[in-house]
Amino acid sequence: MKRVKSKMTDTELLEILKVGETVDVECKEGENKIPNSLWESYSAMANTNGGIIILGIKENKSKGTFEIQGVKNIDKRIQDFWNTINGSKANRNLLKDEDVQKLNIEGMDVIIINIPRANYKERPIYLNENLYKGTYKRNAEGDYKSTEDEVNAMIRDASEEGNDGVILEDYTVKDLDDDTIKKYRNRFSSREPDHPWNALDNEEFIEMLGGIKDDRRRKIKGVTVAGMLMFGKGLFIRDLFANINFDFREEIDVNSNERWSDRFTIDGTWENNIYNFYFTVINKLTSNIKVPFKLENLQRKDDTAIHQAIREAFLNQIIHADFNIQGTLKIIKSKNSMEFTNPGSLKIDIESIFKGGNSKSRNPRIQKMFSLIGLGEGAGSGFPKILSAWNEESWRIPELKEETNLSQVSLKLWMISESNLSGDEVEILDYINENGSINNQQSRDNLAFGKDKNVTLFNSLIKKGKIKKEGLGNGTRYVLN
Q1: Do both 118 and 185 map to the same domain?
Q2: Same domain, 239 and 377
Q3: What range does the domain containing 150 cover?
Q4: Residue 478 · residue 439 · CB < 8 Å
Q5: Does residue 424 form part of some domain?
Q6: Same structural domain for residues 83 and 145?
Q7: What are the tens digits of pLDDT across the range 82-94?
Q8: Domains held by the chain: number
């Protein structure tokens, strides 16, 4: 699980109070007892992106401000908290001793509780032994009770098997598209001409890929979710996954009368499976990427790091999508960016994704199908490969965003130069991209920039249009523009 910073200073607390509650900060009174609403915030933050709960803070609703009220008999309050969380209030205690902090400020005691983001194996975190009525999530509006679909999605994600191995009973190889299978097998045999699978018939071949599964214990055999999505006939995919859509839009040289210059979506003119969607759209995405003249083994090399990164972004979108919920596998190509959106949530936190080496695919069988024809990195190295390619071009840092209220994840690849930025400025942008914002204290603590240097760097980035300022005084924070 991702753990947030365990110690807060009085200066940081005062800065937080000036900004007020945010998606990752919740203030509660708790003067004489632990408020019941704390547990809803514990569940919500653990099931979303973690956060901080501060006890001993009173909201002045008429002024829209937060004031320190203090917690009486603080050691007893903390003991009450531990007794409750280690009891049956929540199904799981994610906290360590250092996650609960006492802080005396202006002569009053407050309690600061750092809630980590639960990892995909631990979710959902729920209350009162009630899975469907006691699970919460968090968005900009605060805590909200999770829907049954959201709870089920967390349960599915907790399985190491992924989502795409489920057998679709009564569906056989006859329900897959022969032409799609033929195209895949041609690519496979070209890459592996001596592979023993080349001698198998279609049903045996697809079974070796994981697209057909024989469950002898249950005495059923059929096409898996992976097999249907990758190779299926569009009619059956639309029936089985009625809430999912495929959509590519190119929005270049458009005007007020045109919303896109090119579009590829489900329209009845093609077998709308993932294989066909990928290989049609990848050509549209890379058609105008400049290729430098480079020879390799006396042949021109047309595949650049940018081409590879775009393929990786596209494949990541597919293998991490949750095809069990409503949403669209959507790609928008514009003059200065490409944006990949998929239904679902992030199984691991953004910081771990940026570091790489910890990939947890939601659709591991589909991932394997692509890897067998030479597409996709393994072991979490795909996202660092994207970052490396973008860094080589001095392009703006890719933006990865989880939108909890929409149950979707989006990756935006900017094709805008940042070559006019200094290394320190890039470091600040990296921090904001990973954490959402930065203030002077965070820059001093985490980036080791002094007060005067902070002022210079922030003002420079504002002038260059990279960041903007929010808040006033000690509550000032800087976010991406």
Answers
A1: no
A2: yes
A3: 10-157
A4: yes
A5: no
A6: yes
A7: 999 999 999 999 9
A8: 3
Q: Indicate whether 151 and 55 sit together in one domain.
A: yes
**Which tokens hold the place of 313?**
């972004």
The overall pTM is greater than 0.85:
no
Q: Each residue of 421-456: pLDDT tens digit? A: 788 888 888 788 777 789 988 888 888 888 888 889
pLDDT given for residue 72 in this prediction: 94
189 with 295, same domain: the answer is yes
Tell whether 62 and 140 lie within a shared domain.
yes
How many residues in total does the chain contain? 481
Which of 104, 131, 157 lies at the terminal end of a domain, its last residue? 157
Encoded tokens for 246? 């495929």
Classify 315 in phi/psi space as left (phi over 0), alpha (psi -120 to 50) or beta: alpha
453, 353: one domain: no
